[in-house]
Design brief:
- Helices cover 60% and strands 8% of the residues.
- Among the domains are: 2-63, no CATH class; 240-373, Butyryl-CoA Dehydrogenase, subunit A, domain 2; 518-694, no CATH class; 739-796.
- By secondary structure, the protein is of the alpha+beta class.
- Strand 8 and strand 9 form a beta hairpin.
- The relative contact order is 0.09.
- Strands 1, 2, 3, 4, 5, 6 and 7 form a seven-stranded mixed β-sheet that branches.
- The radius of gyration is 31 Å and the shape is flat.
Length: 813
Amino acid sequence: MSSLVVLVIYIAGAVLLAATDASLKAALIACGVLLLFALFSDASLWIALLFPGLTFAALLLVSRRDLRRSLVSAPLLKWYRKVLPPISPTEQEGIDAGTVWWEADLFSGRPDWDKLLSAGRPELTKREQDFIDGPLAELCRMTDNWRINHELADLPAEVRDFIHAKGFLGMIIPQSYGGLEFSEIAQTEVITRLFAASGVVANYIVVPNSLGPAELLLKYGTDDQRNYYLPRLARGVEIPCFALTSPVAGSDATSLTDAGFVCKGEWQGREILGMRLTFDKRYITLAPVATLIGLAFKLHDPDHLLGDTEDLGITCALLPATTPGIETGRRHYPIGDPFINGPVRGRDVFVPLDYIIGGGAMAGKGWRMLVDCLSAGRSISLPSISNCIAKRALAGSSAYARLRRQFGNPLANFEGIQQPLARIAGLGYIINAARLHTAQAIAGGSKPSVPSSILKYHCTELARQIGLDAMDIHGGKAIMKGPRNYLASAYESTPVAITVEGANIMTRSLMIFGQGAIRCHPYVLREMEIARETETAGTVGRFDDVLFEHIHFAIRNAALALLHGLTGSCFAQVPMGSPIGNHYRQFSRLSAAFALAADVAMLILQGSLKRRELLSGRLGDLLSMLYLGSMVMKHYDDEGCPAEDLPVLEWSCAYLLHRYQQAMHEFLLNFPVRPIAWALRLLVFPLGQRFEPPSDALALRIAELVTRDTPTRRRLIDGAYLNPVRTNPLGVVEETFHLAGAAEVLEGRLKEARKQGRLAKLTGAEQIEAASAAGVLSQAEAEQLTAFRTRVSEVIAVDEFPSASFARAGADG
């Protein structure tokens, strides 16, 4: 019996001491007391020596710093140097790019929620709001998406001129250069509304305001380059594009075959030192109309005209499209929206070294430029487009489900419709929270490279699911193209967002965890840096300090994961007074479990983890679910914790927790060292897998909220372009939706009159006329109901065209 008592006290004490960050001295005292108790009781001697005895000896060794350095840290450093995978200079620049933000807290295993909640609430300035209410609203009204997509496949001249005149191309350019100098919050709000009006218009504006000449000039350009180009870019005098992707290398800049060679040549009548470029680029947005081309290529100096280095590396330059040897003007034909996109080619194009962004001194520094600036497209543009898809899908699907009837009942009354409606609302809530608060972090000075990959992958994937659900709810209405169809364009264009800025498959399997494991982990990067430095007298000492902090960190997270798993996370720290404290507790628990799993994977698999993309992808999923859940909870708190939105918050958290659980289960199921996987499962899921997906009852509550004009629905669709103009069919649907409440009261009176026998079983206009004659409806009410039914008929109608309009030029018969 004493042996069992000793064992229970040992395990419980070890977990509590580790979980509470007890000092080494406290652990030694506790272990020594337990060892004495075990030795002087009738407990088994081997139990006493094996558990408290060995632990006491290990703690004693750790407490002797000089001894542990010679016996433990020095040999481990030699081993670590042998197994540490090599990192190329380009990989190192990718790791160093950007900054870390909230994702580092999630890697810590003990996130500081108060720090997240104090990060500030996203807000627009008056100048930004005035622009959204003024020029942006006017641009949306001017835009006819059907005409642009199916008649012009281009921007109308009046739309293009308006964009240039109002400075849409200069949102990121400072006012001192003639730009708008909008915050990232304003940029994401503008893009959300723009994409709703037209994907072609949105892309024309998005590209100059993300990775491209303007951003690169702002961060790396010379004063002369900024002073000349930025005012011209802000006013639309110059139309930029950025040429990175090539047929062979794709978007992998490190594998570029496009080359430049430093040489002397004739330029404007005199011989200068310059570059001769040959390149073949494709998929370049705005290339056919661009006047200024940003070009990424590998620069070589075989004759050592610049120095001893021959292969200078990736370089970025700005080339006027009129430069001799450059070919532009041809177009690709993208799926969905026919946004302006095409190839850029050049052969033996000679330009001065001054065309390099930042001048000759920045030769070979292009990769760092690119990875530093990629966060804009991933954190702002694509999440904003996903947000637009989600908001318009919810507005359209919820309104249509209430207006469209089947078997005498609104679609909104069918559970088969209510489930996807709730999913659209919940997934849209996740997208909106993630894009808004990540944009706020960027606006505050952060450049979070890992969250940008998380948002790029998950926002676009969630938007893909939302698009499928919206199409299912609308049925035949959604699959017939025409000016009335407000879903088809975004649905068809979804693969574009999935593919650009790094294909989603590669983003998930290589980028999210692959970059985050090194950059966000509190110790791994420091250990790698020490291991790679030249040996000095203090190297082992510094490695020892970091190593044992890391060991303490891993033991603490193992204890926290087990303790929280056994206690339902009731001891986890949460923000004071939060009504959703239990959700914070669960994500705290899973943060510790993730940190533990990540540490074990890196320790056991070492460099091979880089090649095990399926495992790396699942670790990325774990980090992503934690990040998205954090953004969802912060968003709810920032909104003032509205009680009516609680079902949406609960659905979103349940979805993310369950997705996390699935990813962890699959990670453990496929971890190659099975005893380690079994031990991890015991620590992570001590009571089994307890997280359930969102319940049916929750889905039905959300469906009821979004098919009525509730504050929750208004918040969820806020920012969608819903003006009821001819060119915006969704606005007409929304306007009709707001008339449904009064009309349903009148329809209810007709139904009751039929039951009472006061009204014959008629339909359409005859029914309303009879109801008016019988006194069931007043004349005004009859006219109101007639007008409503007419509007509903227009809402459910689809477009039709003359057969001749489908004839192809030159076709027979």
